Amino acid sequence: MKDDASFSVLTGNNIDARPVKAGGVIFREGDEAHELFVIKSGEVRIQIGNRTITELTADCVFGEMALIDNEPRSATAIAITDVELVAVSEKQFLFLVSQTPYFALKVMRVLAQRLRATNKTFG
Amino acid sequence: MKDDASFSVLTGNNIDARPVKAGGVIFREGDEAHELFVIKSGEVRIQIGNRTITELTADCVFGEMALIDNEPRSATAIAITDVELVAVSEKQFLFLVSQTPYFALKVMRVLAQRLRATNKTFG
């Protein structure tokens, strides 16, 4: 398994990207969730309350948790710079997982890295 | 997607289970990892240092993180009671992910739930 946890395969084509201005809220903690996002360009901050969980750049994925467990958003996502996002619907997500095991492993790797980072922060 | 995050499919057959006596260490933080485990019977505590992360019962999975990201064990696993474990090798894990998208989703759901629990504990 490779270490690369980027999702450039989803942002490299001529996929319609959703622009968000710097400072814009992409989703809020507690929102219902219908899609995950891959960052095509720009930087995004993930925070719970006022605590920054992580800052993400191009080819990173976020918003996958709510899609996986059907719970409301566990954190808030804010555009640090102007960003372009590729949205992946729940249906597309399930298709990708079922058709491309490599995609599933990449999502698992992202979750595992976040858990390790969280455990280190608070351990 | 169902809420059921158990892995009973892996423990229901006549699969060889590995017995561990109450108090026995299944793996230690920092160990190299070559397999994940599904609990066939008994209870297992996952801890980092002296801090209990979670306690798991039959049909739960643990030890999947190190297999996903090829890092050393991030926590220690100890048998609370006498337990029977089904070991899943990295090769078997990759086979399950590639052949059964439902398995991949279940593993993702376990990781997402642990992240939510961790964020709640420390949020």
Description:
The structure is a homodimer. Chain A is an alpha+beta fold and about 120 residues long. The relative contact order of chain A is 0.23. The first copy, chain A, is globular, with a radius of gyration of 14 Å. Chain A is about 35% helix and about 30% strand. Chains A and B meet through helix 2, helix 3 and helix 4 of A and helix 1, helix 2 and helix 3 of B.
Give a short summary of the structure:
Chain A has 123 residues and is of the alpha+beta class.
The whole-angstrom Rg of chain A is 14 Å
Fraction of helical residues of chain A: 25-40%
Which percent band covers the strand fraction of chain A?
25-35%
| Gross geometry of chain A | globular
* Count of DSSP-assigned helices of chain A: 4
Class per helix and strand makeup of chain A: alpha+beta
- CATH C-level class of chain A: Mainly Beta
Order of helices and strands of chain A: HEEEEEEHEEHH
Average pLDDT of chain A: 85
Quaternary structure type: homodimer
Task: Tell how many strands the DSSP assignment of chain A holds.
Answer: 8
Assigned CATH architecture of chain A: Sandwich
Largest sheet of chain A: 4 strands, antiparallel
Strand order of the largest sheet of chain A: 1-8-3-6
Most extensive interface between two protein chains, with residue counts: A-B, 34 and 34 residues
Distance between the termini of chain A: 27 Å
The figure for the number of domains of chain A is 1
Q: Give the CATH H-level superfamily of chain A.
A: Jelly Rolls
Protein name (chains A, B): Cyclic nucleotide-binding domain-containing protein
GO molecular function, one term (chains A, B): DNA-binding transcription factor activity
Organism (chains A, B): Bradyrhizobium lablabi
Pfam family, one (chains A, B): cNMP_binding
